Amino acid sequence: IRESKTMTWVLYDPESEKSIPGQRYDAKEPSSSGYVWKKYCDWSDHAMIQILDGGVDVIYFRYADVLLMHAEALLETKGIAASSEIFAIINQLRDRCGGGRVTETNYTSEDALRTLVRNERRVELANEGLRFFDIRRWKVAEKTVAVSGEGMNGEVYGAFMRLDGVGATDRTVMVDGVPRRYVETYNFDPSKHYLFPIPSKDIDLTNGALSQNPGWD
Q: What predicted TM-score, i.e. pTM, was given to this entire model?
């Protein structure tokens, strides 16, 4: 759930003895990016090894998701004509947590409105396991995330961390003149990865009537 006047993540120094014990470099599963989640996590009782370790109820389906699906459906069926309804939906979500309302004059085109709706899903539903499916559904997964802010291609960077102590072997690179910690490299093939492979047992059951998705043979 989006927190009022706070961030959903915490920047910290994983080499400092004062940092969260479960996320320092010498921990079992330290943060690779320099950020740890604040959303859902009770740091007084649990180190964030996984979300299920927390004392907060696990969300399976949220009304906020329903509202944002409605906003997206309005946009894709009615376009800019649905802007008032879309603004009302997003403001409803923001009002409950004390967030600022939408500046409507910034979203006067369909493309701008689409950016708003998609980013609202990114913020509202962060760390809820939906982003992976959203960017595939929107057919933007082949984009380079470090360039466009969305996608599943290219190198991914976290926060700056010092190259000393137990983190000395980690890779820090310059991104737009700022030192950033390299996390990993994504590789997304649009000719293959927009579809999952069909289990061979299901193909066998159809006696050859069902064929494998492209690239998964």
A: 0.79
